Each structure stands twice: as structure tokens, then as C-alpha cells.
Amino acid sequence: MKRICIVSPLSKVFLLTCLFYVIPHINYGKMTGRQIVSNYLQTQNSETELAFISMNTYASLEAASNRKNHRFLTLSNRNQDGSGSFIIRMIRPQEVNGVTVLSKTKSNSTVEQFIYLPEIGKINQIKGKGKSAKFLGTDFTFEDLQKEIPGNFSYERLDSNVIRGIKCYRVRATRISDSIESYYSHREMFIGMKSYNLHKINFYRKDNTLSKTLESYNYDSPKVKGETTRPRSMVMTDLEKNTKTEFIVIESRLNLKLDAALFTQKNILSWTEDEIRQLIFDMGFTFIEEQ
Asked: Which residues fall within 8 angstroms of residue 256, CB to CB, at 6 or more apart?
């Protein structure tokens, strides 16, 4: 005798509701490392950015009073094909005023970096071991100043972790080829499960020793004037030298109309302080020196 199973409309609703919630949860748990990093990069998906940042370098982790302060502007633009440019222009102190770093990312994932030193009066390309040099004596190398280039790395999802009470995915980023220049063997990225904000990076030397950490604090902070996809502050700690450098975003604007000519070597060579002040004024910056 055959048994006939009759499913009531109410049971159907219950079953469909369970599938609605359970299936996305299963997919959510199976995301690959590359998918997680891609979601993080989507949080950084502004077409342009102009930001005023304070940078503090500490000669010792214990001696907080032993601090050197710099102020600089960052400008960036991003094209639909993934290419883009990023500029750091030093403002203060006076002895580094005008020092400029230009990073240009091509659609094939190659990155070219250049530095302009006013006292020399010319632009030099940063190549090879030069990318592992420290930027103005800070704990950031020129390589660290580059934005994430997903075409250059494989991303392996590791066991999850908790960073300062925030549940995070942990993803190992490793160069896909030895021809890609890097001081590091790999990095571990800790990306929030809910927000996809990047909360921490561990940097490992080629002997797999943990060399540095970069920690991010206070996303969506009301202390930042304007709007930004950045955290309010980032702290790079050199575990070998017992030093640290802190970036603090003071003011920022997103998706402004920035002239493409700003991101050329010709402009960097001729850019005057008056022109920078005019740019800041045109973009509505208050430019108040405070933290």
C-alpha cells in the first residue's frame, strides 16, 4: 500500500523560509579567500579621493613623547579597468615640503612608483630593492604605500580569528610569481565578517618571521571631516626595531572631479604651494591643523 504525504500550505511556507535563510548562510561560509578580499576591495570602491593626513613616527614603543609629526595630502583616482594613480604630497614639516610619491597601477596589475625630491629637482623611479626602503624614516616602506593589487597575489582562506572583539576572516596573500617584487614572503589579512573592513595585516619576511603589523581603528569615525573609506587611524608597528608609525585621517572627500593631469610627472614637477592651496580651497577643505 502506497503512502501519500500531504504537505500543508503552512508547512510549505516553513520549508521555504528555512531554505531562504540556510542556503545563503552555507554559501557565506564557503567563500574563498579571493572572494573575501574582493568584498573588502568593494568597500574601497570610490572613483577619486582627496585626504589630509597626519603621520606620527615614534622612535620607541615606550617613549610616546619621542614623536616626529608629518602632514600630507593623498590623491587617488581609479578607472573602470582597474588602473589608477595614487599620490602622497608632503606638506609639513618644511624640510620635507613638496616631497611626492606617485604610484601608477596599470590594468595588467603592474605598478610603477616614482619619487620627487625638491632638493634634487627631478623624479626618480623606485625599483627593485628600493621598494623595501623606508618612506621618510617611517615604518612604512614604499611597497606598503601601494594599494592592494589582486592580480599579483593568490589568496588562501585560513581559520577565522577575532581582532579587538571583531570576528574576522583570515586570508593569506602570497605572490603568484617570484618576478613580482616584494620584501615579504606573505601577508595575513584580517577582514571583518560583517563589514568587510580590513582590521589588521601581519607582514612576514622571507624567512617566515613576523616582521610588522598594521592595525586599523575607528571606521566611520565622526572625527573625520567629510567622508572617507579609510579608518580614522592606522598603526604600523615594526616588531624587530620596536618602533611604530601612525596615520590619522583629519579630513577627506570622495568622488570629486579631479583633473587627470594632476597625476602626471609633469604636474608633480611644476606643482606650487599656491596651486595646492587653491585645490584644497576648491574642494571645500577647512584644513584646520588638529587631531
From this structure: 48, 49, 50, 283
